[in-house]
């Protein structure tokens, strides 16, 4: 006669067999969904950080261009005329003896000629200028500060440009 203690339920045998294989399907789905949510959050934050970095680069570029424009003004008693600055090219005196910038920078998002770039306009018969860029972070507090500091500058394209630097 068989020992009754050794008789096992067939369902219990099946459960014991699968228990040795690892995680259940539900456990795997929960872990995969948590990893997916975390990856999505990290990706969003990473893209926002890249946008802020490009905005910092834009502000720095405009500050450097402003310094070069002031050196030009000191030499010529006037800022360059509208349309005389070519982004990506050297910024120098008309006779070529003085180089103010080796290359006027492009917008960090600029890839080809159709892409938006910085915008420069001379004002007040060469006694002032407006230099515009479009920031990606539209809630950047420096946008309003720059526009109030350079309130005499009119925006050439309000759909793209929102941050301005002027001669002060």
What's the CATH first level? Alpha Beta
Output the strand order for the largest sheet: 3-4-5
Please provide the ordered H/E string of secondary-structure elements: HHEEEEHE
Tell me the number of strands: 5
Beta-strand content: 5-15%
Q: What is the first-to-last residue Cα distance?
A: 105 Å
Q: Biggest β-sheet, characterized?
A: 3 strands, antiparallel
Provide the CATH architecture: 2-Layer Sandwich
**Regions with pLDDT < 50 over 5+ consecutive residues?**
none
**CATH fold description:** Glycoprotein, Type 4 Pilin
Could you say which overall geometry the principal axes of the C-alpha atoms support?
rod-shaped
The count of domains is 1
What is the radius of gyration?
A: 31 Å
Helix-residue proportion = 40-55%
The number of helical elements comes to: 3
Derived structural class: alpha+beta
The overall pLDDT average reads 88
Can you tag this structure with a few keywords?
single chain, 42% helix, alpha+beta, two-stranded antiparallel ribbon, 3-stranded antiparallel beta sheet, rod-shaped, Glycoprotein, Type 4 Pilin, 12% strand, 168 residues
Describe the secondary structure blueprint for this structure.
Elements: H1 10-19, H2 25-76, E1 91-92, E2 99-101, E3 119-123, E4 128-133, H3 141-149, E5 163-166
Describe this structure in words.
By secondary structure, this protein is α+β, with helices and mostly antiparallel strands. It has one domain: 2-Layer Sandwich (Glycoprotein, Type 4 Pilin), CATH 3.30.700. Helix content is 42%, strand content 12%. The chain has three helices and five strands; from the N terminus they run ααββββαβ. The chain has helices spanning 10-19, 25-76, 141-149; strands spanning 91-92, 99-101, 119-123, 128-133, 163-166. A three-stranded antiparallel beta sheet has the order 3-4-5. A hairpin with a 4-residue loop joins β3 and β4 (128-133).
């Amino acid at each position: 006669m068989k020992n009754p203690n050794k008789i096992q339920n067939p369902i219990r045998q099946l459960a014991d067999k699968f228990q040795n294989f690892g995680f259940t399907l539900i456990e795997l789905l929960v872990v995969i969904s948590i990893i997916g949510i975390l990856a999505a959050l990290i990706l969003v934050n990473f893209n926002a950080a890249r946008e802020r970095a490009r905005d910092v680069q834009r502000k720095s570029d405009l500050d450097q261009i402003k310094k070069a424009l002031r050196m030009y003004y000191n030499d010529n008693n006037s800022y360059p005329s509208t349309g005389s600055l070519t982004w990506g090219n050297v910024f120098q005196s008309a006779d070529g003896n003085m180089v103010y910038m080796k290359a006027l920078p492009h917008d960090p998002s600029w890839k080809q000629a159709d892409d938006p770039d910085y915008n420069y306009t001379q004002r007040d018969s060469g006694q002032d200028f407006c230099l515009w860029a479009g920031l990606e972070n539209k809630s950047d507090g420096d946008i309003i500060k720059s526009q109030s500091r350079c309130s005499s500058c009119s925006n050439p394209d309000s759909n793209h440009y929102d941050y301005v630097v002027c001669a002060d």
